[in-house]
Amino acid sequence: MNAPKLGLQGLDIRDEIDRLRRERNAVILAHYYQAPEIQDIADFVGDSLDLSRKAAATQADVIAFCGVRFMAETAKILSPQKIVVLPDMKAGCSLEDSCPPDQFKAFRDAHPDHIALTYINCSAAVKALSDIIVTSSSAETILSQIPHDQPIIFGPDKHLGGYLNRKLGRDMLLWPGVCIVHEAFSETELLKLMAHHPGAPVLAHPECPAHILDHATHVGSTRSILDFALSYPADTMIVATEPRIIHQMEKALPHKQFIGAPGADGNCNCNMCPYMALNTMEKLYVALRDLEPQVEMDETLRLAAKASLDRMLDMAGRTVGQGDVGTPMIKAASA
Ligand code: 13P
Ligand code: SF4
């Protein structure tokens, strides 16, 4: 239905994206939760931290960001002179939605002795109200650098915050947001799957609730989960995060079996991120062709948000892969 409106009849979308990427001096950055064909055409696929680092360092004139809006906004905050396009501007995030800036400000004002350590999955306005931004791969490294007697509020993901509190023995005050994707995993169905695959490790993202993390062999960011899967000596693994990351695992290890952790209905379709899925190859092509939709940002807001992002990059390192994964939580998989 969309093809005539977009003028795409008869085009080889892959070739056209390649041509426009060269003509525009554009770099295509993609998150691991993007559709496999988008991951395959991207110049770089990564987790939120590495994508931020790439966006900050790129020499390209245009960043085509295949992820969600807060990620593309982060690219614009860090690289204001670049044109940043997002194939579908409606690609939001339930964590961002859970944390309206006015309510977050009221929460901060109610706790004046606390600093705000804030997950990158939030709006630019919430970043501007925060002291330090973290991603799932940098949170442990950064939190370890903050004295234990410093009171902290952590938002918007209560599950990541709870995981950090438990793992590092902290007592951060938590904002009550959740990721609708990771919230949907079912412990009952996961236990059934584990029983069917004894010895298969469970690899989980810290956005999962504690009752899922309790069964995990490894907890980490998307990149950390991928690194773990590529080196762990099991033939079958259970992946408790958005299932499109499995594309990278199957490409690298086609002889192994990677099973998405199930939701309450026993399959993992409910765990596809509906926001990430809004980006398509066709929309990426149009974004490169028309340089629309572009991320725009007020300069005062950008500078305020950049301060908390710069603290993250200073504390975690600015180079891709630099000391940011934290200490992985590795338990032996049940035999
Ligand atoms: P990471 O890729 O940083 O682990 O984040 C996962 C996520 O939910 C992105 O929205
Ligand atoms: Fe947001 Fe969850 Fe989707 Fe990530 S997977 S973009 S946290 S809704």
Between the first and last Cα atoms, what is the distance in angstroms? 51 Å
Structural class: alpha/beta
* Number of domain modules: 3
Using the coordinates above, name the CATH class of the largest domain. Alpha Beta
What do these coordinates show?
The protein has helices spanning 3-6, 13-24, 36-41, 48-57, 69-78, 94-97, 101-109, 124-128, 139-143, 158-168, 187-196, 210-213, 222-231, 246-252, 281-290, 299-316, and strands at 26-31, 44-46, 62-66, 83-85, 115-119, 132-134, 152-155, 173-174, 202-204, 218-219, 236-240, 257-260, 329-330. It is α/β, with parallel strands linked by helices and 335 residues long. It has 3 domains: 6-91 and 276-290, NadA-like (Rossmann fold); 95-178 and 299-315, NadA-like (Rossmann fold, 3-Layer(aba) Sandwich), CATH 3.40.50; 185-260, Rossmann fold. α10 (158-168) links the parallel β7 (152-155) and β8. It is globular, with a radius of gyration of 20 Å. Residues 323-335 have low confidence and may be disordered. The structure holds 1,3-dihydroxyacetonephosphate (13P) and iron/sulfur cluster. Residues 47-49, 121, 135-137, 179, 205, 207, 221-222 line the site of 1,3-dihydroxyacetonephosphate (13P).
